[in-house]
Amino acid sequence: MNSSELFEMLLANSVCRTELKKNRDDFTRKHRLEQDAISFLNQLDLEELETQATALINKRYSETLSHIPNTARANGDLKQEFAQFAVDYWPNGHKRHRLDAIQFLCHLKRKKLVVDMFEFYWNQFQLKQKSISVKLYRAINGKRRILLMRRKGSLCRYYWRNLPL
Predict the structure, then answer these.
(1) Count: domains in the chain
(2) 33 and 104 both lie in a single domain
(3) Are residues 81 and 3 in the same domain?
(4) 12 vs 9, 42, 95, 157, 161, CA distance in Å?
């Protein structure tokens, strides 16, 4: 592992940062670090690394909430839940905030917390290249809904209606 890969791993994974704090030599052997990575590690300020990692997770949290406002409102403060989620998942690419939002919604569903399925389907649609999608779901308020999502070029629109009981 080179120094860039090492830095990325340490920022993304709090378990690795804890291992490194406990014993640098064991960490170096376990991860089979290249010489440049070992040199990088020896110069690394662990407190500064922790500060950077916290700042990145806070930024991810803020960006994710911008894609799931109804779910955030329904659950209250999700910061601690996001911190647990962020340990195991680190998205890549220019659409990483939507990926983060979708995976965080899946995480919340597994934990049996409230998830606005409209937000889940809409974020998924934004990532895919489909031109049209129709979904049936139950809204947070318990009403059954139908959702139509359309794409024309780069413009995406949605329409929804409550269904009769």
Answers:
(1) 2
(2) no
(3) no
(4) 5, 19, 17, 34, 40
**Same domain as 109, residue 59:** yes
Both 68 and 88 in one domain: the answer is yes
Contact by Cβ (8 Å): 89, 57:
no
Do residues 33 and 65 share a domain?
no
Please report the pLDDT score of residue 12 as a whole number: 83
Residues 12 and 92 in one domain: no
Give per-residue pLDDT as tens, 5-52: 888 889 888 888 999 999 988 998 898 888 888 899 999 999 999 999
pLDDT tens digits, one per residue of 66-93: 999 999 999 999 999 999 898 888 888 8
Q: By the 8 A CB rule, do 103 and 89 touch?
A: yes
- Please tell me the pTM assigned to this model: 0.85
Per-residue pLDDT tens over the stretch 97-155: 999 999 999 999 999 999 999 999 999 999 998 999 999 999 999 999 999 999 999 89
Domain containing 32 equals 1-44
